[in-house]
Amino acid sequence: MACTKAKVSLALSLVMVFLGASLADLRVGFYSNTCPQAESIVRRVVSGAALSDPNLPAILLRLHFHDCFVEGCDGSILVDNGAISEKNAFGHEGVRGFEIVEAAKAELEAVCPSVVSCSDIVALAARDAISLANGPAYEVPTGRRDGRVSNMSLAKDMPEVSDSIEILKAKFMQKGLEAKELVLLSGMYLVFFFFVSLSFMFVWWFRISRVFWYEVQVI
């Protein structure tokens, strides 16, 4: 179990730091003076959303990955630029979780106006959702600056389900990643989808069995 968590933590760290986000520019606790409540606010919003959507860990992790893979972890996938917005790219089809980021941003703006970047919210939200699903806990270096450019053409090289393994490897190599990282990130994504789906099925079965047992007792 410890080895598995270590591998997942490595994959999560790769998602956070690759593609233009130099660790020299980021640090854990970046908002400790300017907005001390930042991380707790994001966690509270994510916790509330997780109550109604058991798939939230996979949803927010995927949002984080898609944001990072294009032009770095800059929040550009959130920018609304009309029909040509990056979020409308074919490679981002099915990506969700935008409303969670917007809800957290609204609460943060009420407390710390124009301080916490949307790209940091995406990174923190993914971390918190995974932690709430009993996944590995890890620290998130913050201090990212939001990108202003949003164009669907920039997402033309997103990995797609129809890509062969060779094409996927080539796309990852363009981002400075190797086959090992491709396997870790792909496997992690599937594991979390399986985990949340299994958890949902267990809760559903438990509730149904309780109703059935009650009816048997009444009869």
TrEMBL record:
Catalytic site: H66 (proton acceptor)
User: What reaction does this catalyse?
Assistant: 2 a phenolic donor + H2O2 = 2 a phenolic radical donor + 2 H2O
> Which residues of the sequence carry a binding annotation for Ca(2+)?
D67, V70, G72, D74, S76, E86
| Similarity comment: family membership | Belongs to the peroxidase family.
For this protein, the record's PANTHER family field holds: PEROXIDASE 25-RELATED (PTHR31235)
Residue ranges annotated for the Plant heme peroxidase family profile domain, each copy included: 25-191
| S-S pairs | C35-C112, C68-C73
> GO molecular-function annotation terms?
heme binding; lactoperoxidase activity; metal ion binding
Q: What is this protein called?
A: peroxidase
| EC number(s) from the headed UniProt entry | 1.11.1.7
Q: Which UniProt keywords apply?
A: Calcium, Disulfide bond, Heme, Hydrogen peroxide, Iron, Membrane, Metal-binding, Oxidoreductase, Peroxidase, Secreted, Signal, Transmembrane, Transmembrane helix
Its required cofactor(s), as named, are: Ca(2+); heme b
Can you tell me where the transmembrane regions are? 182-206
Q: Does the keyword Transferase apply?
A: no
